[in-house]
Design brief:
Helix content is 21%, strand content 30%. By secondary structure, the chain is α+β, with helices and mostly antiparallel strands.
């Protein structure tokens, strides 16, 4: 849901009056505890009424209600998406407020913070791929013109600074990142020489299917793991030269070909962004570049569907 610019300006003035940027704010135990997500719990009713008031006021072009935060202890089996439906806010609000990176609620968390307004919370110091993406798009990128409220929240006893964008939600790329079907670019500077799909072969001149994306880069450029996973294969292939294959969660794999050096070993665990090799010219190649594939259950996928900022 998007709020018109003039309404956002009014809303932020209202919010700023009650949620100042205050590093000395009380810790999260001072946030009221919703014991039961049912209407016989007065704090649950209060949170629900505030959310409803938000939608009524935003739809009528009026100033928004104050932002309030509550605590709630998830029950066994709860997912973030189920809790979002129960509290009538987008799961993006719960995820970004609590700095959760996937739809499963972390088992070690004693409670979640529940907002009275929908919106996106962007941390000043991003730690994960999802948070870096939120920060990149809203602070420096295409969505940097959105209005926001600066605030400090105490999470795990530590004051943490955020930008709060009332009424905002994940865009398509952010949603893919949260649902764990998004990959980071394997090179710092991306220039595509050959996209995914049918093309004319540079060797035979015939139309053939290209199962990945070719990134041009100087010889020796660092190649990074597109997502955390495990090294399932390394070696040399007559076509792709020196290669690395990584296994990821949910049946995904990534393949890196034409490498010069390989920096990992079979069965090594790798983190997202870890250097796994360098760009080379090995195998059947017309010059230094990286051949990169994303596979799901053995079938190749267009990397542009899973990777932010990838342009053909």
């Amino acid at each position: 849901m998007r709020i018109p610019t003039d309404l956002r300006a009014v809303a932020l003035l209202v919010l700023a009056a009650v949620v100042p940027w205050n590093p000395a704010r009380a810790d999260e135990r001072s946030y009221p505890l919703i014991e039961h997500a049912r209407h016989n719990d007065p704090l649950y009713r209060q949170q629900q009424e505030a959310v409803q008031e938000f939608y009524v006021r935003s739809g009528a072009g009026r100033s928004l209600p104050q932002l309030q935060l509550f605590r709630y202890v998830p029950q066994p089996g709860d997912s973030l998406i189920q809790l979002a439906a129960r509290f009538n806010v987008p799961y993006s609000s719960l995820a970004t407020l609590n700095r959760i990176q996937q739809a499963e609620v972390p088992a070690e968390d004693g409670h979640l913070l529940i907002p009275s307004l929908p919106g996106i919370f962007v941390p000043e110091n991003p730690h994960s791929d999802l948070e870096r993406l939120l920060h990149e798009l809203r602070v420096d990128g295409d969505r940097s013109n959105l209005d926001y409220l600066p605030l400090t929240l105490t999470i795990d006893g530590t004051p943490q600074r955020f930008r709060f964008y009332p009424g905002d939600d994940f865009d398509r790329v952010e949603r893919l990142a949260f649902l764990n079907v998004l990959f980071r670019r394997p090179l710092q500077n991306v220039r595509i020489s050959s996209p995914y799909g049918y093309r004319r072969s540079p060797f035979s001149g015939r139309r053939a299917f290209h199962s990945g994306v070719d990134f041009v880069a100087p010889l020796g450029t660092a190649v990074h793991a597109a997502r955390e996973g495990t090294v399932s294969a390394i070696g040399f292939d007559p076509l792709y030269g020196n290669f690395v294959l990584l296994d990821h969660h949910a049946g995904f794999q990534t393949f890196y070909g034409h490498l010069d050096q390989i920096a990992v070993q079979l069965n090594d665990p790798v983190s997202s962004g870890m250097i796994i090799g360098t760009v080379g010219n090995s195998g059947l190649s017309t010059g230094p570049h990286l051949h990169f594939e994303i596979r799901l259950n053995g079938e190749t996928r267009d990397p542009a569907l899973h990777m932010p900022g990838l342009r053909r």
